[in-house]
Design goal:
- The complex is a heterodimer of chains A (273) and B (431).
- Chain A is mostly helical and 273 residues long.
- Chain A is 73% helix and 1% strand.
- Chain A has one domain.
- Chain A is globular.
- Chain B has two domains: 206 residues, P-loop containing nucleotide triphosphate hydrolases (Rossmann fold, 3-Layer(aba) Sandwich), CATH 3.40.50.300; 129 residues, Coagulation Factor XIII, Chain A, domain 1 (Distorted Sandwich), CATH 2.70.50.
- In chain B, strands 12, 14, 15, 16, 18, 19 and 20 form a seven-stranded mixed β-sheet that branches.
- In chain B, a hairpin with a 2-residue loop joins β8 and β9.
- The longest helix of chain B has 16 residues.
- The chains are: A mainly alpha (273), B alpha+beta (431).
- β1 of chain A pairs antiparallel with β4 of chain B.
Amino acid sequence: MDELIIEPGRIERQYWTDLWRYRELFYFLAWRDLLVRYKQTVIGIAWALLRPLLVMLVFTVVFRRIAKLPSEGTAPYAVLVFAGMLPWQFVASSLTESSTSLISNVNLVSKIYFPRLIVPASSIITSFVDFLISFAILLVLMLWYRSVPSWHLLLLPAFIALAVLLAIGVGVWLCALNVKYRDFRYVVPFIVQFGLYVSPVGFSSSVVPPKWRLLYSLNPVVGIIDGFRWALIPGRVGLYWPGVACSVGLTTLLLFIGIWYFRKTERVFADII
Amino acid sequence: MSNSIIETEKLGKKYRLRHSGAGHGYVTLREAIVNGLKRMSRPMHSPVPASEDFWALNDLSFRVVLGETVAIIGRNGAGKSTLLKILSRITEPTVGRVRLKGRVSSLLEVGTGFHPELTGRENIYLNGTILGMTKKEVDRKFDAIVDFAGVDRFIDTPVKHFSSGMQVRLAFAVAAHLEPEILIIDEVLAVGDAVFQKKCLGKMQDVAADGRTVLFVSHDLAAVEKLCSRAILLDAGRCRADGPTKETIAHYQAAIVEAGSVDLNTRKDRRGAGLVKFSRIQILDEHFREPGVFLSGKPLRVRMHYLATGSKPLENCRVSLTFNGWGKTYFAASTELVSDDCLNLSPEGYIDCVIDELPLSLGTYYLGPFIEVNGEVQDWLDSAATLQVEDGNFYGTGRDYPKGGAGATVLVKHRWQTPQENPIAVETRDR
């Protein structure tokens, strides 16, 4: 029979083994979120298809037709927008989902024990499935335009991983802040909205003057979007490597801060939620 | 540690009580920023302690051996929920340690984690996992669970279309098939009808008879006595008594009586001018005794002792008494509501509030006395005494208000009529 000891600081010490032990709960929470998401909305998956297409349409018209910004490589502007929107949409919806995840699972948190990190982490899965659906659309779009990516495509998984890590890092941070400061939920939509404007979603980041480029890369999403475009768009697309390095560094930092803050607040979640 | 299955050693849990921003544990960002700025603008100001420590559990040690059914009893705020939270690892203790042998499952609230949009089948898997089963275990027990709940025809219907009774049955069925070594039950009996409660009790007895350990927390002393061989009485976070259920319950009832009449002279949390102050509140039954526990439907007399600073008679007084729960007032009794006469009181003495039929159901209530002299508030306390109510024969039918039923607490006498019994009403409607 297993023996379990409860004493101050104990949960702290076996946190990561517990996280592994409770992996099945992680799958089930993600599975529940997915089921609910595609059941609740009548149009379900159609919504996941429609949203990126509409955004792509608007951005292409605004930035290409009205602002007359240049594309990258040989890609049609629509592909450029879509390749940028893919990671952005994923990060943005992950932040929104995970920031409210603990509050909306309050009856679980106050009633049973499990490593709380499971909740915001599993909420990201829903966004990731949406991401995969959007990705399929992009593939169709690229087939349509007959734009075949080069060997760069092999590095795409690395950029996807970077986007996931960024989403987890910032997501769990916002999640913890949301539990601690209950009015923080008004801040999250603002962050997401603001992020859209300061990220090169509707345009190529090559339009940013070179001397501002490094400063611009302080937004970790910039490096990820650039990487996505570099991996997906054929032709002579340059990748601003200092930007990517910046993004990797910042993502790592945010991941550490996010998890550290979450773990610090986690001990009192059940008492304050 | 031989065959003991739960062992706690000097367990303690400290909470920090916040004096400002009462009511909730979290702060808002706005408050945090404002407080931060305040502190910055007054760096030399010595900080007023805005919080104080409160030990919800203190130096608690006990052992439970295999196959025992132990009840934890005590008043609200005695530390019962805190103990359960620690045992189910929702919060960590501040000091001390607990050793548990075997899997712990807590039935803190039936239906935790049910999602209304998901079907019965999906919810069984989800809830099973949440309560600590693996998918394989749920697979194995799935048919038995559905069978116990008796919902096989609706198993692929979203739970939101289930009746509340079906939801409770399904949730309990999942929990009942957990087969943990240690089962923690907190007031599950508060839901469902009498038949279902009986079924739950039966299932719990089976669990205990199987040689597993049950920890049972309840206000329902009758259920405790029926189910448990041993009971632990908590008071202010400490163990007051530990032994055979009957003895512990007797201790508990004695302790309630002891706390029944309270000296209020030391209280600081009062409002009003203070020329008259309440000194003591006694809660009496119809024979002017203090039984400690009162029954719904029986007479209740609240004797409010007061003392004025001067020796002049108090003219034009208004006295009232509120019956409160946590954060809300259920009803108030007031002299001005029931009398037109001007109320004059002697400078020292008591005034009784007499209620012929106590209209409250099972629970703990707090009495808030109030006195006003010549339009000026003199004394006002939120909670000057605790009133313990047990279900009695309020409606004259011998039936209690269903536990946990919506609208429990205040009981109101009422009648029902059908058109046949009231022909005049039928006529007017027909015209």
